[in-house]
Design goal:
The chain is α+β, with helices and mostly antiparallel strands and about 325 residues long. The chain is about 45% helix and about 25% strand.
Length: about 325
């Protein structure tokens, strides 16, 4: 009963805050929660969500009367601000539940008035308190708000307060200082990530330089094949390939590594002169990836693949060396 009456107040608050075009698209009310679906084409902002919650609780604090009246359907449809579920057929006469007005003559647009056959509290004050738990999309143009009332709402507030208390204890600050502390930490993490990224890029460049220096030349083309540091990103590898092309000119490149998930990314790249001769990076990477149980493809000058057997990465790279030697020797 608490949750059902609170749902009517929520329906009114949504209309008042988000606009009169908001329509109910379904609801589920039980002893644990109220779940309300409504038309809205974007997420409800935190500011609007707080205002909706405040309006519902204001209606509760005012301890408004909840009155049910059965009346002719045609007359009921003329009541100010009356709400009905879109597409649902109602009996004639229809039962109307009014919150804030005790007779149809007292109804205003500021009152909650709905066609409803359900059970309700006699007054809104008995709801106790209303707390939104979540909002989420459920279909295109339809969102869902889940909320709790009474003891469940009190428990929800207590749980959130416990989180705030824990954080203020850790940061040794007041609750209203938490956003600034978190923002400072986020900025610090961002700077550290940039430092790590720069360090990883330097390590990768060093490895690639060694592979390039040791690479044999076959018919004037550098055969650069090897394993790069695990956890490397494809974006970083592509940057190194551009550097090799600028440094070495004609080049046949295959790099492989293991990522955090245990998979085996592979990238093959051919300089423009080799592509003109008919070589294709997609064909190369596909054959190399087969050794590690994977597949892939891409453009003639650069292609990427992924495998799932990291233990066979050395074999795959050896295959790349053999394949590169064969193709460049033709």
């Amino acid at each position: 009963m608490r949750n059902h009456t609170a749902t009517h107040l929520l329906n009114l608050a949504l209309k008042q805050v988000l606009g009169g075009d908001v329509e109910q698209r379904g609801s589920l009310v039980d002893d644990a929660k109220t779940r309300f679906d409504f038309t809205h084409d974007k997420p409800v902002t935190p500011e609007h969500l707080r205002e909706i919650e405040e309006r519902v609780n204001r209606g509760i604090i005012r301890d408004q009367p909840v009155t049910a009246v059965t009346m002719p359907l045609a007359v009921a449809k003329t009541l100010p601000g009356v709400r009905a579920v879109f597409g649902e057929k109602y009996p004639d006469p229809v039962r109307v539940v009014m919150i804030g007005a005790e007779t149809p003559a007292q109804v205003t647009h500021d009152d909650s008035v709905e066609f409803c056959g359900g059970t309700h509290m006699p007054r809104t004050g008995s709801i106790g308190v209303f707390k939104v738990v979540s909002q989420e999309p459920v279909a295109k143009g339809v969102r869902r708000i889940t909320a709790v009332t009474g003891r469940a709402a009190y428990a929800e507030v207590q749980a959130r307060n416990a989180v705030v208390d824990d954080l203020t204890g850790r940061f040794q600050c007041k609750p209203d200082e938490l956003p600034a502390r978190v923002e400072a930490l986020q900025e610090q993490v961002k700077k550290l990530q940039e430092q790590v990224k720069k360090g990883a890029a330097a390590d990768l460049a060093g490895v690639v330089d060694k592979l390039l220096a040791a690479a044999p030349s076959v018919n004037g083309a550098k055969l650069v094949v090897g394993r790069v540091p695990d956890g490397t990103t494809s974006e970083a590898i592509r940057g190194q390939i551009d550097r090799i092309r600028q440094t070495a000119g004609s080049s046949f490149v295959v790099f492989g590594w293991a990522d955090e998930g245990g998979k085996v990314p592979l990238i093959a790249a051919l300089s423009a002169d080799l592509v003109k001769k008919g070589l294709k990076a997609g064909d190369v990477v596909k054959q190399v990836a087969a050794v590690v149980g994977g597949s892939g493809g891409g453009k003639p000058d650069i292609a990427q693949a992924g495998g799932k057997d990291a233990a066979k990465l050395p074999d795959a790279l050896q295959k790349a060396v053999e394949l590169g030697t064969e193709l460049l020797s033709r």
